[in-house]
Amino acid sequence: MTPRPTSEAPVAAARHAGPEDRAARRGDLLAAAAGLLLVVAAAAIGTVIERANGSLHVNWPPLYASWFPHVGPGTPAALAVAVLVVGYGPPLAASLPWRGLLLACWTAALAWTWSLALIDGWQTGIARRLTTEYEYLTVIRRFDDLGPALRGFTGHILNNAPDHWPAHVAGHPPAAVLTFVGLDRIGLGGGAWAGVWCITVGASAAAAVLVALRALTDEPLARRAAPFLVLAPAAVWVGTSADGYFAAIAAWCLALLALAATRRTGGGRRSAPVPAAAALASGLLLGLTCYLSYGLTLIVLPAAAVLLLARNARPVPLLVAGAATVAVAFTLAGFDWWEGYRLLVERYYQGAAGVRPYAYWVWGNLACAVLITGPATVAGVRRALAAAPAALRRLRPSAGPPPGPAGRLTVLVLAALLAVLIADLSGMSKAETERIWLPFAWWLLAACALLPGAHRRPWLAAQAVLALLLNHLLYTGW
């Protein structure tokens, strides 16, 4: 019987790996080990600080979580999804028809996210997550009269303001809470429907990233990323936090922009230009993204990378028009984004951020990023950083041919990494970045496609084990 290439080729490649390949694999393992050491250091030093003076305001540094070993109804399903994706994910990702792969990726990401959330049970893991005193659903009735609520929104941001908003409502522009107001208006009110919305929409980010990767790099590279996008440790926080929903909106914004800016759909097949509607839709989602979260204005960095990689600025007018439409609509409704942001900064330092030490969180946040993206992503980002000088040089028109698929993926990963570093250095993300940085985590996860095929399953298994440990050993706050 002739051996199947999908199983034998990686083994043969591993046997004949040269010194450079072996050195690269050692570098991957060292990078993952460095990520582990960063997490251990953040946990150990953070615990000492928190026990000494309580200034971190988290129970299990660096995460907003508590030590709580447990199993739940989602445990068998989560184990089953992990085993199936590790065992069958790579060959299925390589062989499924493209549209089938997108649907399978979304479905598998849904199964993974739901099963992780249900480890905490239906009520604790999903139905009550968005009903706590900090969350959006506590103020739904205050939006019965929408016009006055929007016009007076900024007047309730500060802690010393009358009837001040809870933390998450005050910390975001009104599109965030209006999402749940809208669900309530169509008869899908309450924490259960809000949780279903966030998980269902949030899991679609995996498919959105695949669409963008195929358009900007090539189809084989996108297919290599697919299993890692499914088994993302970030799914622990996608189910259930509103930031998972925000991440999906941002991901589809970039995916549509990639389609609008490229003339090829991937796989070497030339197609007709994507309609201008994609650029306009991307702009509308960009505007919505900025009115869901102030910090997500940084999504313009990956958006700029998309246009740079496509070497096409034609979508920009429609992109700007779409974003401006959202901004004008909110402004005419009475909400001033800039005033809201100014007051948010003041509110931010009225709360825990006023005492949380920047000297710890400026690097402790990066440990959170390791936990939501996993060791495989750390190794993939290492490969992206190693390839960065050559990829960036080839972006110059005078440098000859543009970067190849891996080089283009490298540039996209670098843009997401830059956004994370700016958010980190700003001091406006002290703690809780395991959920706040979800919109950027998906693009860092794409770096896993740079890992060699022969070692993809062990890296996938490491991703799954991390997510399972996080959800079974800790009770996360979001």
How would you sum up this structure in a few lines?
It contains 22 helices and 2 strands.
Tell me what the structure shows.
- With 478 residues, the chain is mostly helical.
- Helices cover 68% and strands 1% of the residues.
- The chain is built from 22 helices and two strands.
- The protein has helices at 5-15, 19-53, 75-95, 98-117, 122-127, 146-151, 167-170, 175-185, 191-203, 205-216, 219-230, 235-238, 242-261, 276-292, 300-310, 316-333, 337-350, 358-393, 405-426, 433-436, 438-445, 456-473; strands at residues 65-67, 474-476.
- α4 (98-117) runs antiparallel to α10 and α13 packs antiparallel against α14 (276-292).
Strand content: under 5%
Largest sheet: 2 strands, antiparallel
**Helical segment count:** 22
Structural class: mainly alpha
Give the mean pLDDT.
93
Poorly predicted runs of 5 or more residues:
1-15, 264-272
Radius of gyration in whole Å, from Cα?
22 Å
Distance between the termini: 52 Å
Gross morphology is globular
Give a count of the beta strands, DSSP E runs of length 2 or more: 2
In sequence order, what are the helices and strands, one letter per element?
HHEHHHHHHHHHHHHHHHHHHHHE
